Amino acid sequence: MAQEFLEMPDKDGFFGEFGGQMIPPELKAVMDDIANAYEEVRNSREFQDELSDLYTHYVGRPSPIFYAKRLTERQGGARIFLKREDLNHTGAHKINHCLGQALLAKHMGKTKVIAETGAGQHGVAMATACALVGIPCEIHMGEIDIAKEHPNVTKMKILGCNLIAVTRGTKTLKDAVDSAFEEYLKDPKNFLYAIGSVVGPHPFPKMVRDFQSIVGKEAREQFLQRENKLPDVVTACVGGGSNAIGIFTEFLPDESVKLVGIEPAGKGLDTPDHAATLSLGTKGTLHGFKCYNLQDEKGNPLPVYSIASGLDYPGVGPQHCYLKDIGRVQYEAITDEECLDAFLVLSRIEGIIPALESSHAVAYAMKVAKELGPDKTILVNLSGRGDKDADFIANYLGIN
Length: 400
Ligand SMILES: Cc1ncc(COP(=O)(O)O)c(C=O)c1O
Fold this sequence. Notes:
Blueprint: H1 2-6, E1 14-15, E2 18-19, H2 25-42, H3 45-59, E3 65-67, H4 69-75, E4 79-84, H5 94-107, E5 112-117, H6 121-133, E6 137-142, H7 143-148, H8 150-158, E7 162-166, H9 173-185, E8 191-193, H10 204-212, H11 214-227, E9 233-237, H12 242-248, E10 258-266, H13 277-280, E11 282-286, E12 289-293, H14 318-325, E13 329-335, H15 336-350, H16 356-372, E14 377-382, H17 390-397
Parallel strand pairs: 4-14, 5-6, 5-8, 6-7, 9-10, 9-14, 10-13
Antiparallel strand pairs: 1-2, 3-4, 11-12
Helix pairs in contact: 3-5, 5-6, 5-10, 6-8, 10-12, 11-12, 15-16
Bound molecules: pyridoxal-5'-phosphate (PLP).
């Protein structure tokens, strides 16, 4: 099984039946160009050394694993550990793939990087990477997310990127993707659309997965070193799926390790206000690839919702769809209410303010710790910090 995962996707970008390049024929050559350039840098010692140096000296990798002792005692069961991606420069895992894509843009001689953002973490990380590499950057963001994630909006402006407010449709992530893609289509030869997760047409799901796999490589080694065994459960939140695939990939061949992806159940799976794509979606095409989708009978994406802007997406990475179907990863959903509870508990009991996205995974660990029992361990990918959410939470809870 291990070999099978390492060789994925196939040459056309498929993980089983999911992924591929569902794009207009005129874009095929451009995507193939990106795929070829990526294979070149993937095998280039110079490129990999440059990226690895930036991971160490710019991002601050390796991110530590922290034993959440007080949270464990509170829940009374399995020991809970946190992989601290929140401590990375710019505050989340997104910087791992943004640096990779910015270096690729430089390698390909691109003149502008375009990206979408939901919570603003990918936008800040991309604007940061572009400032570092010296390439103009344009970020598309829904108006609702702009209001909600104000600290990240300010940061993107300070970093010198051109921020485009998206006022159409849902005014959230899905429409930000559409808007960014339209801009990209104006000059795909000279622009790079730096996708913010393991989604989009081939080679993006593969490329972003590879850049994020550093998280699982470090985590597996760190956990073994510290505990002399592998974790029993590894869990991460799933929006498009980049932080989850980042930590899962290295553990995929370890059959004793249960992998659990956490989707946003929003106001409840029995309401329309959720974004639980793998739990309730059907197969379809979105943004250039095949995946599970929350869609209507005509195949149009449904409006989705989560308290966490970064999880608010009607599709999901093709590798997650494949891993769900073969049963290697289990997908569960956590409500806004459970997420908020985890957000406050972790803040007040461990002094760590998690991103609302990451709080979904923390909530799952809190939920299952007791039934797992004290001889078991859970490793949570704490994908980002919650500074960006502080104002929103203060208003939401009426504590400002
Ligand atoms: C902190 C954090 N975690 C998770 C996500 C979800 O993205 P993905 O599923 O690609 O990791 C986001 C997206 O903005 C994020 O900001």
